Amino acid sequence: MPKCEVTPNSPNVNKCVGAKPPAVELHIPIKNLSSRNLQTTNTPSGNIHFREQKGYFQRLRTMMNSLLIVLFFALPFISIDGRQAILLDVSQQQFFFFGITLWPQDFTLLAWIFIAAAFSLFFITVFWGRVWCGYLCPQTAWTFMYVWIETRIEGSSNKRKQLDKAPWSASKIAKRTTKHLLWGLTALLTGCAFISYFIPARELYVDIFTSNASFWVTCWVWFFAVCTYLNAGWMREQMCIHCCPYSRFQAVMFDANTKTVTYDAQRGESRGPRKRKQQTSLNEPTLGDCVDCNLCVEVCPTGIDIRNGLQYECINCGACVDACNETMLKFDYKQNLIGYMSENDIKGVRYTYWRSPRFLGYGIAVIIMLIVIGLDLHGRSEIQLNVIRDRQSLYRETADNKIENTYQLKIRNKTQETKQYQLAVDSEMPFSLIANPIITLAAGEQLDYPVTVLADRDNLASGRKIIQFSVTDIKQPDQQVSQKTGFFSP
Fold this sequence. Notes:
Largest sheet: 5 strands, antiparallel
Mean pLDDT: 84
Distance between the termini: 117 Å
Radius of gyration: 34 Å
Strand content: 15-25%
Protein name: Cytochrome c oxidase accessory protein CcoG
Shape: elongated
Organism: Shewanella morhuae
Domain 4Fe-4S ferredoxin-type: 278-309, 313-334
Pfam families: Fer4_18, Fer4_5, FixG_C
Keywords: 4Fe-4S, Electron transport, Iron, Iron-sulfur, Membrane, Metal-binding, Transmembrane, Transmembrane helix, Transport
Structural class: alpha+beta
Number of helices: 15
């Protein structure tokens, strides 16, 4: 007859000397984190009133969300050289980024930046899963901000649930009215902040709140205000679950070493409620460390149960990690029953990222994109030149036996300073430029400049010759742009 005893360090686990340990029935199987078969769960119908949670990851998330919101509202009010730091002036087709002026012709640079950002997101996903959604996504930041307002007015999650079920009364009407007014004001400020990236911020806010803004400006501000109010106030987790494409393809970037919010089923099952410091009797079934408090579900902004395995609805915000660690501390159990863990962490397997094709592929792609952005910035010219031939005639013959061709030059000063340029024409043949070679352009100005190129007929071979127009900054000779075109003669 084997002798059984209760170990003091783990009051919920029985040890039997000389006997096989009792079989532990795992209700929830461990899922392969690197697989693409993410589990789906039926999220609760109706509003999800998740609890506020404190802890390390929630402090980190709040800090990063707050930084994102502050930067979003503050950047349009930062000035560099007397101009708004970030201003996308669509009407003038000028885009200002911290002293750099971009034109529609420079949009390839923005394309490289967006591609680099996408590969950087994929690269981070290989390490930490969907942390972008939990810590930096605007939808998450504004959702938590709206829930914070809701909690200050209507109370905790249980009080909000009770208020939903309660009949309409003066108190309920007052709370709901106050909440929606604050939501609406926050949405209006968000709409103003978004449009202030396209219209000077200091003028926009005054015009909107004094009703002096134009019809279309007002329409766009209220359009984004309504979108913010609906997304952060009403849709919330529905945007993450049903509308966000990232939740659908994130799993293809996971591997066995990707750290995601994971429940350690081997340690936690079988789960069951108990009292603190409770000693398990010999006749009771063996319990894991999960006390089935359900806090991990109550704090989840998408309403899922992380104990059901990896799910695409999880945004990796870490709220369930902080809630579970708080419970483990109360029961004097080991932390991180739910934590940022990989499949290899649970198995105790050591792994090097250098062996991962995803790590190498995304890392190399990010480096290549950064090099392309650097080269594009380095080769970017501050002058724009387009040469257009006279379409009415190929050439004209003058009375003094000369051949002339007429061109229209479109020259743009892409800087924010007045510039003087030297115009020249280069060719192997002797050509004369009939135009003032010194051109002065104001900041951002484009000039349509007609010029005539003249040559002696006797010195020209028949047919088409190649000539090249060049425009050079007089004060900065390294800033030069040129374009080739044809010169026609009989």
